[in-house]
Design goal:
- With 158 residues, the chain is largely without helices or strands.
- The chain has 2 domains: 76 residues, no CATH class; 67 residues, no CATH class.
Amino acid sequence: NIFSGWECGAVSGWECGAVSGWEPVSGWECGVVSGWECGPVSGWECGAVSGWECGAVSGWECGTVSGWECGAVSGWECGAVSGWECGAVSGWECGAVSGWECGAVSGWECGAVSGWECGAVSGWECGAVSGWECGAVSGWECGAVSGWEQPHCSRTGE
């Protein structure tokens, strides 16, 4: 994947240094972008820089926005920044809404709305309320009202 003039190859065990002034490790290539870091392939992290992309490690992709981070390949989370997208890890997608997080579980999707929505997987739905999180479990539903809690659902910060 090429964006803002740099490339990162996917090879087991590589690391990318920070800022323009990176050092190569066996088997990969890194271009020039200011202020980003890449960790090891198996469970690596991408730093925060406006307008960059991360290539595939076990089939996931990272979109382009300023100020967000992506964690480990299997079971990773996406930070909160308006206008970003996260690719698939075990089959899920994240839409574009400011201030929310999506956990990593197989088969569910999150749409793009101010206040956000979650699509159906094993029969559950999540309404649109600001500032809350929903876990991923089969067979439960979440309503849309401020100040409530249900199993695997809680307001942000609690």
